[in-house]
Amino acid sequence: RLQPLSRLQVILQHVKMSKHTDSTAEVLLEKRGGAGIITLNRPKALNAVNLSMVRQIYPQIKTWEQDPETFLIVIKGTGGKAFCAGGDIRAITDAGKFASSLAQDFFREEYTLNYAVGTCKKPYVALIDGITMGGGVGLSVHGHFRVATEKTVFAMPETAIGKFSLHLFFVLFVTGLFPDVGGGYFLPRLAGKIGYFLALTGFRLKGRDVQKAGIATHFVESAKLPALEEDLIALKSPSKESIADLLDSYHAKSKIDQEKEFVLDEHMEKINSLFSAGTMEEIVQRLKQDGSAFAIKQLETLRKMSPTSLKLALRQLREGASMSLRDVMAMEYRLSQACMRGHDFHEGVRAVLIDKDQAPRWKPAALEEVSEEFVDDCFKPLGNDDLQL
């Protein structure tokens, strides 16, 4: 028989566990000078954000906002590969199987955190070095300053859990089946129709292109980030203006890919024309009629996507273009819960993470089969269950 532990043994075990937890904490929160520093610390999981991390970061941002000795907030990731590759969807889909409230709690609290970033009273600087997707976008893009590097890889691949079969890490942490975490707010506000193109195709932007697209505010070489961080911390009572000046000076000195033109430059006219259609069916029709190599490539991509997700995402962006961030987050929470109730989210996770056959069977399988009534239903208010911000 197992002997019961003495009280002293229990205390010693607890102390040992606390030490272990502290040294391997999933998120590190520290004050250095006048700066609050948030470090996402799950390098093996590409710093994917989970509910526990959300519950640590949110109150800390709120505390620093009220602290007269905290002048700015910096967020970064560890490991050198990713800032944050998204939200931990495996846990969410498992929760769905067991009728857990995690799916509601995760999205509700993650979106509340995204809104806190977007309304933060202190200057907020995100160092988006490495993969920045899904939930990582929500932790950075709504803040005042976003610093990309040559290692940054940005995408909103949510419409295609199953698309990136050769790059499994791109889909491990996708948070939903539409470009959430405020995608409905920032994507339609990018130049022309580039936001619609990124949302619907999951196209990946890399390095300086993330800044040229208007997603990052600055580009700084990855090796210079530690020095930039020290200079940010050393600023005396910094204002948004003095932080912007410092970031501008680093940006001006960064030479990598300086002369390279924006990756989508030659296609922007087509993107603006083809992706300005009012319905997904019309976008597909325009791509077919265009017939160029670029258009055919986009058609092939869209054919792999969830038809339901494409229709939800297009409407989300069209409506979000004229909504406040608060209203967009409430709309996206409704969509997240519709996706949790639906078929395609769980099917996408099955195809990529569980059976790994990379062959999701979407239902419905064609755009024409996704009715307007169904789409309308996904956008309906949830009454007392709506997201309150």
TrEMBL record:
Keywords tagged on the record: Branched-chain amino acid catabolism, Hydrolase, Mitochondrion
EC number: 3.1.2.4
A Pfam cross-reference name: ECH_2
Known pathway: Amino-acid degradation; L-valine degradation
GO cellular component, one term: mitochondrion
Keyword Glycosyltransferase: no
Reaction equation(s) it catalyzes: 3-hydroxy-2-methylpropanoyl-CoA + H2O = 3-hydroxy-2-methylpropanoate + CoA + H(+)
Segments forming domain Enoyl-CoA hydratase/isomerase: 36-164, 176-379
EC class of the enzyme, as a word: hydrolase
GO molecular function: 3-hydroxyisobutyryl-CoA hydrolase activity
InterPro entries in the record: ClpP/crotonase-like_dom_sf, ECH_dom, HIBYL-CoA-H
Record localization: Mitochondrion
Domain of life: Eukaryota
Subcellular location, principal: mitochondrion
Coiled-coil ranges (or none): none
Gene Ontology biological process terms from the UniProt entry: L-valine catabolic process
Cross-referenced PANTHER family: 3-HYDROXYISOBUTYRYL-COA HYDROLASE, MITOCHONDRIAL, 3-HYDROXYISOBUTYRYL-COA HYDROLASE-RELATED
Family statement: Belongs to the enoyl-CoA hydratase/isomerase family.
Function: Hydrolyzes 3-hydroxyisobutyryl-CoA (HIBYL-CoA), a saline catabolite. Has high activity toward isobutyryl-CoA. Could be an isobutyryl-CoA dehydrogenase that functions in valine catabolism. Also hydrolyzes 3-hydroxypropanoyl-CoA.
The name this protein goes by in its record: 3-hydroxyisobutyryl-CoA hydrolase
Organism: Tinamus guttatus (White-throated tinamou)
Taxonomy of the source species: Eukaryota, Metazoa, Chordata, Craniata, Vertebrata
